Amino acid sequence: MERLNGEARRPDRLLSWMGGLADPTRLRLLHLLDRQELGVAELCAVLKLPQSTVSRHLKLLSGDGWLAARTRATSRLYRMAELDAGARKLWRLAREQTGAWAALEQDRARLERLLATRRGAAERFFAGAAAEWERMRAALYGQGFVVEALCAALPRAWTVADLGCGTGDLAARLAGRVRQVHAVDRSAAMLKVAQRRWGDRKNLTFWPSELSRLVLPDGCCDAAFLFLVLAYQEDPAPVLREAARILRPGGRLVVADLTVHADEEFRRRMGQARDGFRPDELAALLAAAGLAAPAVARLAPEPGARGPALLVAAAERPA
Fold first, then answer.
1. For the residues of 117-186, what is the DSSP string, one character each?
2. What SS3 class is residue 206?
3. Going residue by residue through the chain (319 aa), what tens digit of pLDDT does each one get?
4. Nearest CA to 251 among 243, 262, 261, 259?
5. SS3 73
6. pTM
């Protein structure tokens, strides 16, 4: 079967693409997987279809190149593949023509409930862990990665953002070294602890906000930090795009997060949506967010750290 990663120069290739879209169930699957990575069981729950039916359509769409997949523990996760220009045009047309289907409205409602349940796991974890977060984080990951990441930037005149600031330890450290710090988090419990501990810092401002829809204006920061944040995101792409947006031209984003691991129990216990990142995967995400020269390095695990190994990445907004 011809795939979608080449030019459509033969009729059979175009017919193959069109055949992949010529079924309501496959169209529903593509709408769900266009922006969201989901497993087979989750797709069955959203579509209200048996696993055999969903798996059959996933196999066909994957064979035609519409979908990409990866394995996490015992699960197979699917998402829309990177399409060439011709396939993208065909999908845009199909998406526009089918977007108002009643079945899709129901799918979207069920998907939102499913994602809310996922987010609730992270919220419950942070609400319960706020008071002990710094101790827990140090025990799991150590503290060396903080120093590693701070070395990427920090002229005194800079304004920086700590995105997903948690209880504010990093934001407070940054406030002692730069002109202004914006500390952002979606967890009310975390921000309450952070403000109680660090609210007296005159150059430290706390913002309750979703990281995928930051309240900060364009180009307001010289640097931004995402420390142990992306693994909690269902879709890291909009978070990275927002981080890039608030940087001035030439500003730098620094990311520290988990390398890919196979400890599924750890991921569930921490309420994380992902099992970490490969260096090449994180570099590609940074580039896709419009950031230039992404550089990613693995960090050696600290003695006594019980969590997965970490990596640190830095990239710049083009001037």
1. HHHHHHHHHHHHHGGGHHHHHHHHH-SHHHHHHHTT---TT-EEEEET-TTSHHHHHHHTTSSEEEEEES
2. strand
3. 444 444 445 566 777 777 778 899 999 999 999 878 899 999 999 999 999 999 999 999 998 889 999 988 778 899 998 888 888 888 899 889 988 888 888 988 888 888 877 777 777 777 777 777 777 777 788 766 765 566 445 788 999 999 999 999 889 988 888 999 999 999 999 999 999 999 899 999 999 999 999 999 999 999 999 999 999 998 999 999 999 999 999 999 999 999 999 888 999 899 999 999 999 999 999 999 999 999 999 987 776 778 899 999 999 999 8
4. 243
5. coil
6. 0.63
Report how far residue 264's alpha carbon sits from residue 258's, in angstroms, rounded to the nearest whole number. Answer: 13
Tokens for 261, please give them. 């691991």
User: Where do we find the tokens 């940054």?
Assistant: 174
Domains and CATH numbers, the chain: 11-100 (1.10.10.10), 130-316 (3.40.50.150)
